[in-house]
Amino acid sequence: MKHDRILLAHGSGGLMSQRLIDEIFKKAFNNDIMEPMLDGAILDLPAGKLAMSTDSFVITPLFFPGGDIGKLSICGTVNDLLACGAQPLYLSTAFIIEEGLPISDLRSIVASMAETARQVGVKLVTGDTKVVEKGSADGVFINTTGIGIIPAGIDYLPQRINSGDKVIVTGNIGDHGLAILAQREGLSFSTPVLSDCAPLYQLKDMIDKYQDAIRCMRDPTRGGLATVLNEIAVQAGVGIRVKEADIPVSVAVQGACDMLGMDPLYMANEGKMVIFVAAEAAEDFLNDLHKMSQTENAALIGRVSPEPAGMVLVETELGAERILGVLEGEHIPRIC
Amino acid sequence: MKHDRILLAHGSGGLMSQRLIDEIFKKAFNNDIMEPMLDGAILDLPAGKLAMSTDSFVITPLFFPGGDIGKLSICGTVNDLLACGAQPLYLSTAFIIEEGLPISDLRSIVASMAETARQVGVKLVTGDTKVVEKGSADGVFINTTGIGIIPAGIDYLPQRINSGDKVIVTGNIGDHGLAILAQREGLSFSTPVLSDCAPLYQLKDMIDKYQDAIRCMRDPTRGGLATVLNEIAVQAGVGIRVKEADIPVSVAVQGACDMLGMDPLYMANEGKMVIFVAAEAAEDFLNDLHKMSQTENAALIGRVSPEPAGMVLVETELGAERILGVLEGEHIPRIC
Fold first, then answer.
1. Nearest Cα residue in chain B from A35
2. Which of A78, A160, A263, B248 would you label with A217, given CA atoms 20 to 30 Å apart?
3. Which residues form the PurM-like N-terminal domain (chains A, B) (predicted)?
């Protein structure tokens, strides 16, 4: 590249846009579907149900302990597709870049996207690049939209959740939120906290194996575990009871949260899934999760009851029960 | 809504995000696929080829003569799908909103998206909303990603273009670019120029009728007609010869361009298509375009020749021939 920073002309649609695409995006995302460089990608898919999911990423800072906006932009959409029971296949990606972004930063972000996509086995098949004037955006915003195939018989709607089902979370919660907050505020802890940012592709095998013993899945991102449990309680029309002592939180995150007066139950996660599983399958399911590297800290944290419908109750470590509300107001802005 | 402007908390993922989604997005985009409000949309599609296309829209100003960012965000992606030969079906939409945006503006934009989608017959099935601090974006940026089905036998790749094929443009060029420029600069003309922003859904019937007599289509947005012709000449490995006198430009746009020293061939369009058609079908094709409201000013502007491969030549009104280059540098930033 002739320049070391992004110029407005890189978004012109003309010669410099073409060079940016050729030099940065095509080289990194290189695949046969993107290659013809049309206005869209042409995909050959078998008949059946598809999942489609979209997310824009506006996280600040762009690079953080455990990841960057590029890795996050793949993880977020891949995990949403998995939550729909889909095998993620194809992603589109659209960049809104602030004039002046160092091209070396863009290269790192794009390399990180390509590497994460490779790990999952998804292809980045079509894209878009816009450039806005300095001060009209903040570094770079990335949208990814994904599609995946839902295997026959899979239908992970909250309405399938029954009283007696178990609630599993696939690992420690709060790491992403705390890692971002700590970096932003310049806090450092004796044990550094890394974002859990990860594409949960190992769950593909669990969908294959457990099929409809899995009732419903959702990834607890913005708003954290508490907000996701509340959403599902309302959508499924059931009560959810969790035990505080069973919710896995790392010592570092718990300590930092205590110090800062934050609650890990409301902290964002970017590599975790909350899974509702039929009671009879729960033990095997958990054992299988423990065998996989991405979910070795999975824990059974609660169960579904008919009452109180639409609400989440937490049994505290002292045995009392309290209502776990949905996140009100703002927690940590631009966490993803 | 309790507030009249967007707050950071509307992007929290918690209660206020939920209210924003319920009050603004769900009401406007209301459909059975979006209704379950999962992490993604579940779609039932027949087997066959799909097209997938993505675009982020960063246009300024948000409201302009002939449209707004909402309408544009549907037109852009719908037209890209049509250019792939696809019947547009489903769109995702992701908003990045600057804190402080008047909620009444968001409502207008969303209403305009819903109305345009209804007109085309596409459904907005899944979405995402992020809010960034005042000064970290500019009003609102919208991403739409669409998928559509490509009928069997349709394969509109530039490689299908042959020497002798005709080049058609579906109407007057330059209107969008000039309308935005004029509004931004506070220029007014005796005949007001409106953006041509339109979803070219009437072309669906032309794809059905003409099948592979259509070789390739592309919408001349950023970079204008000149840039699209150059892209195709390179991708197809052919020469393209157009006649300046045959390229339809309205009197108002031509006059304004002359005054401003701009060239309409490089001005953005948001409701036009460049179509390469087999010579023997071109006359009927053009007649059919003239019968439809969206393409009544369509014109045959040129033809494909083996030489000079990868280049576009314009025959000027005086009979001379000049090379029509691709857009270099920046033309008009944030035009879409």
1. B235
2. A263
3. 39-150
pLDDT, tens digit only, all 336 positions of chain B? 789 999 999 999 889 999 999 999 999 999 999 888 888 999 998 888 999 999 999 999 999 999 999 999 999 999 999 999 999 999 999 999 999 999 999 999 999 999 999 999 999 999 999 999 999 999 999 999 999 999 999 999 999 999 999 999 999 999 999 999 999 989 888 888 999 999 999 999 999 999 999 999 999 999 999 999 999 999 999 999 999 999 999 999 999 999 989 999 999 999 999 999 999 999 999 999 999 999 999 999 999 999 999 999 999 989 999 999 988 887 899 999
Output the CA torsion sign for A134, A135, A140, A144.
negative
Taking CA atoms, A146 is separated from A30, B109, B244, in Å, by 17, 24, 42
- Is residue A336 within 8 A of residue A254, CB to CB? The reply is no
Beta bridge partners of B45: A48
Residues contacting residue A158 through CB under 8 Å, at least 6 positions apart = A216, A232, A235, A236, B36, B38
Question: Closest residue of B to A220, CA-based?
Answer: B13
Cβ atoms of B84 and B148 within 8 Å: the answer is: yes
Q: How far apart are CA B128 and CA A145, in angstroms?
A: 10
- CATH number, domain at B79? 3.30.1330.10
**Cβ neighbours for B258, distance < 8 A, ≥ 6 positions apart:** none
Asked if A126 contacts A34 with a C-beta cutoff of 8 angstroms, the reply is: yes
Boundary of a domain, candidates A85, A116, A150: A150
Does residue A1 fall inside a structural domain? no
Nearest CA in chain B to A131: B334
CB contact under 8 A, B15 and A127: no
Is residue A101 helix, strand or coil? coil
Q: Residue B93: its chain A contacts at CB < 8 A?
A: 54
Cα A204 from chain centroid (whole Å): 15
Output the domain CATH number for residue A196: 3.90.650.10
Are A141 and A224 part of one and the same domain? no
Q: What kind and span of H or E run contains B205?
A: helix B203-210
Amino acid at B218: R
